[in-house]
Prior knowledge:
Blueprint (H helix, E strand, L loop, with lengths): L5 H14 L1 H26 L4 H25 L11 H8 L5 H38 L8 H9 L14 H28 L4 H25 L3 H36 L11
Helix pairs in contact: 1-5, 2-3, 2-5, 3-5, 3-6, 3-7, 7-8, 7-9
Amino acid sequence: MKRFDIKRFNRTLGWSFVMMRKEILTNAAAMFFAMFLPFLIQLFAGYGSSRAIVANGIDTAVHTDFFIYTVLVMIGGCWIFNNMGTKEQRITFRMLPATDLEKFVVRALYVTVVWWLMGAVAFCLADVFRMLISIIAGIDVVESAIPAFFRLIFAFGIDGRLDVGDMSQAEAFSFVALMLAWIFWVHSFYILGGAFFRRRQFVFTTLAHFLLMMVCMPLLVHIVDGADFDDRFSLAVALAWTGSAVLAALCVLDWWLAYMIFRRMQAVNNKWVNL
Length: 275
């Protein structure tokens, strides 16, 4: 069997999405509820108030939804192999007429592209429902919050420049690069946790991530505190770019390890880990 055949991959992808349609709809509905709840709370809190107060409440809801979306992006990877929870499911998926790489890429697409798109679509639908309720309830502020949400995702201001507090563009680029690298590394770490742990993937991976941060953060603080005050800002920018490169390398390593674990998975594995 060829290592990667696009036609065979497409058949496997189509079969997988047919089998996952209920799971996709369930997760999309849960994301919609999570995104709509902050809007609903702000609508109730600001009902009958001035236009400025309502607009401020919507802005708060958008930032809350952005936080929810970021968390969803990071943790979604821990369910990469939730389609292999039982022995029968493992046998079915492992016996598909496709290579391990093709099957791994199919699951990877689900917890990346599909998962992230579901979150974005869920926000858009939540915003549409918020506007419908505003019209029905006679609330003045019915403008769409979708542009503001995507400006937060891409960290761009209204003028098209990176908008990160009072930072210069060079400093903002280093900060955004570090944040993106950290988000994608956390996502890859949850991918690895989802591949390694057979049960309670989210709980165990979150605990491992917390313990790792407890070890690394004091070291980072020690490096910054040891520098002169005048050099701290330039050191922070250098550390941001260095950290981005290290996190990017760790991200690749996590994906590779997850694939190696997937290749070793059997119909019957250890009770708690997939080894």
